[in-house]
Amino acid sequence: MNKNNNSICPRLFLAPMEGLGDRPFRRMMALVGGFDEATTEFLRVPKNAHIPSLSKKYQSDELSPIPLCCQIMGDNPDLIAEMTKAVIDRGAPRVELNCGCPSNTVVGRGAGSSLLKDPEHLNKILTAMVSVATVPVSAKLRSGYEDTSLFEENLCAVQEAGVAFMTLHPRTKREAYKPPAHWDLIARAKQLLQIPVIGNGDILNAQDAMRMLRETNCDGLMIGRGAVANPWIFHEIRSQFEQEQEIFSFEKFENILLAYLSYLYDEALTTKTCINKFKQLSHYFFQRTPSLMERRKEILRQRPETPESFLKDILKALKDEYSSLALA
C-alpha cells in the first residue's frame, strides 16, 4: 500500500454502506470509476449459518476489473473463519470483518460495533480469520461503543491478530453518524500502529480528503456517503495528485442514472423498492444547493408512480441546475 506523500495518490476505497451501497449502486459507481477497490455491504454470519449457501451471495467478478472485498459480520470465531475461507475460495481478493455497524438489531446479536466492548474476543475472531486466509484480512472499526475508553485496546487487538490494515470511522456506536467525525483519533491510530490505517468519515470533496491526509497522515481514504452525493469525488481527489481530466457533465450524470435504473431491474426489485432507491440517491444528489432540495420536495409531493417518471423528474431538476454541480 502506497504511503501518503505529496506526489502519490493514496489508495482510495468505496465504502460499504448497508442498504445504500448495494450491488446496483456499486455497479453505477464502477462506471464512474476513480477508486481502487470496493467492499460489499456486510454478509451476516448468524449462529445457524449454512456457510456454503451464504457464501454464494458474494460474487468476486461483480465490478471486474475493480477488486471487490467481501465484508462479513458475526461473533462466532469458528463460523467467521469458515466463511472467510469460503469467500476466498469464491475469489475474494480481501476479506474484512465489520466491527462498526451501529444498528441496534446488529449489536443486539453481538456483532458489528458490539465487538468493540471486548478487545480480547475481537482479537480471537480476527486471529481465526487470518489463520485460514490466503489473501489479506482487514477490519473496519469505529472508535468505540459507548465511548472511547477501549480505543487503544481495540487497535492493539486488531494489529496483534495479524490483519493487513484497518479502516477507522472515528465515531462511537453511540454517536452513529452525527458530525463531526473525530479525525484526531485517526491520527492517534497512526501513531500507535505499525499496520496501515485507512481514514473514513466526513470526506465530501477533494479539500476534505487533502485535509484528512495532512491532519492524520493516514495511508488511504475510504468514502461512502460523500461518493453518493458526488460520484466523481474519487476523480476529484486524484486530480490533486495526477493529471486527471475526468470532467463532470450533466450528460455523464444522466448516463449513470439510466444505468442505475437498469441495474435495479437486474435485481428483480419491486416498483416501490426502485422508487425508494431513487429517493435515497436524490436526497444526497440534491443536497448540493437549497434550490435543488426544494425541487426534491416538489417531486416527492407529486408521488411518482414509476421509477422512470421519478428519474425523469430528477434529471430535469439536475439539468436545470447542473452548472452548480460541476466539480471544482
3D architecture notes:
The model has no long low-confidence stretch (mean pLDDT 91). The protein has two domains: 228 residues, Alpha-Beta Barrel (TIM Barrel), CATH 3.20.20.70; 76 residues, no CATH class. Strands 1-2-4-5-6-7-8-9 form an eight-stranded parallel beta barrel, surrounded by five helices. 45% of the residues lie in helices and 13% in strands. With 328 residues, the protein is of the alpha/beta class. The two termini are 28 Å apart. Helix 11 runs antiparallel to helix 14. The radius of gyration is 20 Å and the shape is globular.
From the spread of the alpha carbons, the general shape counts as: globular
The major beta sheet can be summarized as: 8 strands, parallel, barrel
Q: In total, how many beta strands?
A: 9
The CATH class of the largest domain? Alpha Beta
- Determine the number of helices (DSSP H or I, runs of at least 4 residues): 14
Based on CA atoms alone, the radius of gyration comes out at: 20 Å
Termini separation comes to 28 Å
Short description:
With 328 residues, the chain is of the alpha/beta class.
Question: Could you list some keywords that capture this structure?
Answer:
TIM Barrel, 8-stranded parallel barrel, alpha/beta, 328 residues, 9 strands, 2 domains
SSE topology:
Blueprint: E1 11-14, H1 23-32, E2 37-39, E3 43-44, H2 51-55, E4 68-73, H3 77-89, E5 95-99, H4 104-107, H5 119-132, E6 137-144, H6 151-160, E7 165-172, H7 183-192, E8 197-200, H8 206-216, E9 220-223, H9 225-229, H10 233-238, H11 250-266, H12 271-285, H13 290-301, H14 307-321
Parallel strand pairs: 1-2, 1-9, 2-4, 3-4, 4-5, 5-6, 6-7, 7-8, 8-9
Helix pairs in contact: 1-11, 3-5, 5-6, 11-14, 12-14, 13-14
